[in-house]
Amino acid sequence: MRHQTIQRLYWTSNRFVTLIIGIAFILIGAIGFFYTPDRAMGNMMGFDIDFVHNCVHLLTGIVALAVFFTGWPRLFNRIFGFIYLLMGLAGIIYPGLYVHDLFLGAIHANAADHILHVVVGAIVTFMGYFVYDY
Fold it and tell me: Strand, coil or helix: what is 107?
C-alpha cells in the first residue's frame, strides 16, 4: 500500500496576508474594468486606473492566490512588498518617471496610488521580513 503525504496548509500570518492580497487585488482589478469599460483612464474612489492598471491588479491577485496554496507566502510578501514599496516611493520622490502622463510609460497613477502602494508595500515587506511563522 502506498502512503500519500498530505501537505497541510497552516494559517500563518504571511499566508493570511497573501490570501488577503489575492482576494483584494482580484476584486479591485475586476471592479476597475467597470470604471473603464472603453479601456480609457478612469477614476475609482480617487485612484487613477486604466486597462493595464486593472490587469496588473488581477495578475498580482492571481499570483498571490497561487502562492497561498504553496509554501512560499513569506517569499512572495518580501518580493511583492518590495516591488510595491519601490513603485510607490519612485512615484512620490521622482515624478519624472511619467512619460506622456503614464507612470513608467505604462499606467495611469496619481499621488493617492503612490501613497497606497507605499503603505501596502511597507506593511507586506515588514510581514515578509520580520514576522516569523513557526
Answer: strand
Instruction: Answer yes or no: are the C-beta atoms of 122 and 85 closer than 8 Å.
Output: yes
How does pLDDT run across 65-106, given as a tens digit for each residue?
Answer: 999 988 899 999 999 999 999 988 988 887 666 665 666 666
Q: How far is CA 29 from the centre of its chain?
A: 10
- Residue 99: beta bridge partners? 102
5-49 per-position pLDDT tens digit: 555 667 889 999 999 999 999 999 998 888 777 767 777 787 878
Cα–Cα distance measured from residue 103 to residue 87, given in angstroms and rounded to the nearest whole number? 9
DSSP-derived 3-state class of residue 7? coil
Q: What is the DSSP letter of 131?
A: -
In a 13 Å sphere around the CA of 45, the CA atoms on its Cβ side amount to 6
- Residue 102 phi/psi, 5-degree rounding, is -115, 130
